[in-house]
From TrEMBL:
Organism from which the protein derives: Arenimonas terrae
InterPro entries hit by this protein: AAA+_ATPase, ABC_SmlMolc_Importer, ABC_transporter-like_ATP-bd, ABC_transporter-like_CS, Mo/tungstate-bd_C_term_dom, P-loop_NTPase, Sulph_transpt1
Entry keyword set: ATP-binding, Nucleotide-binding, Sulfate transport, Translocase, Transport
Domain ABC transporter: 3-237
Identification of the protein by name: Sulfate/molybdate ABC transporter ATP-binding protein
SMART domains on file: AAA
Database matches in SUPFAM superfamilies: MOP-like (SSF50331), P-loop containing nucleoside triphosphate hydrolases (SSF52540)
Molecular-function annotations in GO: ABC-type sulfate transporter activity; ATP binding; ATP hydrolysis activity
Cellular component GO terms, alphabetical: ATP-binding cassette (ABC) transporter complex
BP terms from Gene Ontology: quaternary ammonium group transport
Top-level taxonomic group: Bacteria
Length: 349
């Protein structure tokens, strides 16, 4: 079921945790909410879940207005960072809990509950541990049980708040691959919060990048990485260089000499150019932005250059395939040709 968020915001006293945002989560997709601490990810997730009332706007589940419905009425499956399993109940009973608590009229009979719980435990690969208590499980196993428990109510959507946040790095990587497979098998619309860019880019069909209570960009992992829409996204996702300059007549120039590059839709004013290290080529000085090589090192089969662009305070990092050409030497004059870049007005950089 797709979820549409229209003009939904949340204020806590003086703090705008979430400025009014619009967002569509298409049915069956695995979507990441990615951003630094305090950017409003958890607030947005809790608003969608019905754990917090909205200040304004609407939340639609399919064609139904769910804005005023409770968590239970929305039928969302929610998994928290800290497992939140009942410590005195076995794995089996933890998963069965949501089914046993249903109002009598919609409660399945005992045999159906057993069949369903065993099926779910098979799905999360925990069938062999069904009689254990949570204390006797690893962190990753507990999160898989939490996921099975969330799935037991046949949720319309699965909401996961930093589900692997408390696990060590190796288990995190294993579990996120497992979650991708789980999602592909079940096809359930899933939204998960993370501040780990690698996790979001590897796992999600779509990444929603947030900062300071706003959505900065919403797109495929490739799109948000290769075509960042704002200076924040450039900086937050992967490595980027910033070159200060000016746009005149639609062309960006870093200083007096060298070639200008088109600034696209931006016509004039002080500007900052953003480019990723691997989107820059080394050419003759007059054919690009003139610079002097200040450092050369090799790293895992790549050549990393640092170059001082004339008139710039910050050096520019260039990441080249190793065998491409003879390595430039420290002190050499070069030109930097930008394959992919974006120019933003300086005020927003
Ligand atoms: N119950 C609350 N009362 C007051 N302020 C709150 C409350 N919940 C969140 N905030 C504030 O709202 C802002 C957004 O918080 P939120 O938890 O949504 O961010 P987040 O991106 O999920 O961060 P983290 O990754 O650290 O969990 C923060 O400034 C936070 O301090």
């Amino acid at each position: 079921m797709d979820i549409r968020i229209e003009g939904v915001g949340k204020q806590f006293g003086e703090t705008a945790a979430l400025h009014p945002v619009d967002l569509v989560i298409p049915s069956g997709q695995l979507v990441a909410l990615l951003g630094p601490s305090g950017s409003g990810k958890t607030t947005l997730l809790r608003l969608i879940a019905g754990l917090l009332p909205v200040d304004g706007g609407r939340i639609l589940f399919g064609n139904h207005d769910a804005t005023r419905l409770s968590l239970r009425e929305r039928r969302v499956g929610f998994v928290f960072q800290h497992y939140a399993l009942f410590p005195h109940l076995s794995v089996f009973e933890n998963v069965a809990f949501g089914l046993r608590c249903r109002p009598r009229a919609s409660r399945p009979d005992k045999a159906t509950i057993t069949r369903k719980v065993d099926e779910l435990l098979g799905l999360v690969q925990m069938a062999g541990l069904r009689d254990r208590l949570p204390d006797q499980l690893s962190g990753g196993q507990k999160q898989r049980v939490a996921l099975a428990r969330a799935m037991a109510i046949d949720p319309t959507v699965l909401l996961l708040d930093e589900p692997f946040g408390a696990l060590d790095a190796k288990v995190r990587v294993e579990l996120r691959r497992w979650l991708r497979r789980f999602h592909d098998e079940t096809g359930i619309t899933t939204l998960f919060v993370t501040h780990d860019q690698e996790e979001a880019l590897e796992l999600a069909d779509r990444v929603v990048v947030m900062s300071q209570g706003r959505i900065e960009q919403d797109g495929s992992p490739d799109a948000v990485y290769a075509e960042p829409a704002t200076p924040f996204v450039y900086d937050f996702l992967g490595r980027s260089n910033q070159i200060a300059g000016k746009v005149l007549g639609g062309d960006f120039r870093a200083g007096e000499g060298g070639s200008a590059v088109p600034a696209r839709d931006f016509v004039s004013g002080p500007a900052t150019l953003f480019a990723r290290p691997h989107d820059i080529d080394v050419v003759a000085p007059e054919a690009g932005l003139p610079a002097t090589v200040s450092e050369v090192r090799s790293l895992a089969g790549r050549l990393i250059l640092e170059a001082a662009v004339d008139g710039q305070a910050r050096p520019v990092e260039v990441d080249l395939p190793y065998a491409d050409r003879p390595a430039p030497q420290r002190g050499e004059r070069i030109g930097l040709a930008l394959r992919r870049y974006r120019v933003f007005p300086s005020a927003s950089a």
